[in-house]
Amino acid sequence: MRATFFFIGAALATFRDLAFGDLNFLHTTDTHGWYLGHLNQKTYSGDWGDFVSFAHHLKQKARQNGQDLLLVDSGDRHDGNGLLDITSPNGARSLPIFIEQDYDLLTLGNHELYLAENSQQEYEIVAKHYGEKYVSTNVEYLDGDNWVPIGNKYRYWKTEVKGTRVLALGFMFDFARYNEKTKVTPIAEVIQQDWFQEILDKFPAEEVDTVVVVTHVPVDRDWNELALLHAELRVHYPETKIEYFGGHSHIRDFVVYDEKLVALQSGRFCETVGFLGVNLNATGSEASEVYSRRYIDFNTDLFRYHSGKSVEAFDTKKGNHVKSLIALAREDLGLDNVIGYVNNSNYYMDYVPVSHPKNLFRLLAKKVLPTLEAEKDVETSQERLILINTGSVRYDLYKGPYTLDTHYIVSPFQNKWVKVTVPKYIAVQIAPKLNQGGYIMAAASKEPLAPPHQTPKVLQKRDQQVMDLSQYDDLDLHVEKLTKGYVTYDDFGNKGDDTVHKAVVNYPVPNVVQSVELKHNGRKAPVDVVFYDFITPNVKEVFEQLDYPFPDVEYYSDRYLGQLLNDYVAENEIYDAARTAKDIGVGLVGSIGGNKVADAVGGGQVSHIVGGVAGGIGAGAAKDKAEDKADEKKD
């Protein structure tokens, strides 16, 4: 393994090279609309235009070496970013940007299936644009009166350079919360059906050099759906090399099923581009002799490094066109309009414990949720508990200007609040019950209440990463000089990340957090338990466990979490509504030929730009700050 050292700013960056094979892949998944890059994190500051240029250069590099490179995506293009979620239907401006990438194979995720309008976009825009390259073996769409595949059930073709014969399939996990215009057939059922067997029979092993399965399924062995598929494919292709590409759980991972079948998963939110190299003619008995994987940090430094291009030679005509689309969309949608300022600190989902003053869930529970008011004509009790599932929060809250884009980044979901009114002794048991057993799945849906990357297995791996220094064994460097970032443990070890990072701690996050507004009334006093309608099945299940009749669910409010956070930031931080992030130096990331904002402001820390705003943070925020300092001393 060759490692190259660079200094970026004041931090040491160490890059690991890509190992190309006969057939190579670039993989993305769970992009959720993050096509302008991460304003506050230089490590992931590349935008979609940069990625388009990178893929073009890497394909050229492979072609010049007599090798093939295929681009693959595993779905989830909705919910999670202002560029995507602010429009109606959401994705109206982001999907035209996404399809500028020249994918060779792609499928859809569960976030394309919650709403019928999103599924219609997927069918009419994305699937039609990519044609035979769009594969969805077990998801169908209701077109008029007919159920048809979204895209194609399979793809069979020969690669451009080496003429490798590829059979591709595409699968969604067993997802039950699809809309009325779609349906998902579980993998366990599909592999037994005649039409699927006919596909495999149509392309016998002697006519297939490799099978590629693009899925929106975690590659983790705990999800047995891929194991079922693996067993079936091996019946038909006992010696064929097979590659799975997974998604959904928002992590970097690589799993070896056997010496000729591996699975790659490439993170989330345009933080990662996965790379897989395959030596099709390798005859060794170890998967490591056939496959090489790498997790590429989503930034232009890495894109230029791996493609061998200088700053001047990197941007392509198409890449610049995509940058212009991003800039125009941000301006048209007003995504840089400032709602307020986060002056005190970054607030993290899981980089600090839930009890820490800088934990985002603590901020929401203590300061934001109590501002929720019931709509008029809604009868309320004197006491209440407000629950949110932690999976409804998507990303950290960074200090600096809080923009319209920030609103959608932190919590894009526009759910309704509902309530049940029950005796206090029942009400106080609901959150603890929901948090029992760690990472639980919503009833009949396999939908997590906690963030997807908070599975016990992932947390266990990350605990190990912080303590294990073996990833640095082949490097002559001081760990403390490294930037913080992903350190991935997978079936090939701990040297898959293309950039050597210092590991960060990811603390456990409960399934739900709550705002407690109880008085000293008796244990049978009525309490309103308020929660998102999305988790009603989970709350109902708790009542069954408590052997208490589930009361009528009543409407409470439409003012969802993102709006509450908007109001809190606006009322507790001094800001000038006429100013925008562009005016104070954040600007439109992705302007053609320009440096990223994160470069200009020291890795995305923009607090020094707004730190001198006259008037401080207001009386309410000052009180909050004093409380946080007191709590921090306790911690």
TrEMBL record:
Stated name of the protein? Putative 5'-nucleotidase C-terminal domain-containing protein
Signal peptide positions (record): 1-21
- Give yes or no: UniProt keyword Signal: yes
Q: Which domain of life is it from?
A: Eukaryota
Q: What keywords does the record list, in alphabetical order?
A: Signal
> Its GO CC terms?
cytosol; extracellular region
Q: Which Gene3D superfamilies match?
A: 3.60.21.10, 5'-Nucleotidase, C-terminal domain
| A Gene Ontology BP annotation from the UniProt entry | NAD+ catabolic process
Q: Which InterPro entries match?
A: 5'-Nucleotdase_C_sf, 5_nucleotidase/apyrase, Metallo-depent_PP-like, Nucleosidase_C, Pesterase_C1039
| Single GO MF descriptor | hydrolase activity
Tell me which residues make up the Putative 5'-nucleotidase C-terminal domain. Answer: 346-539
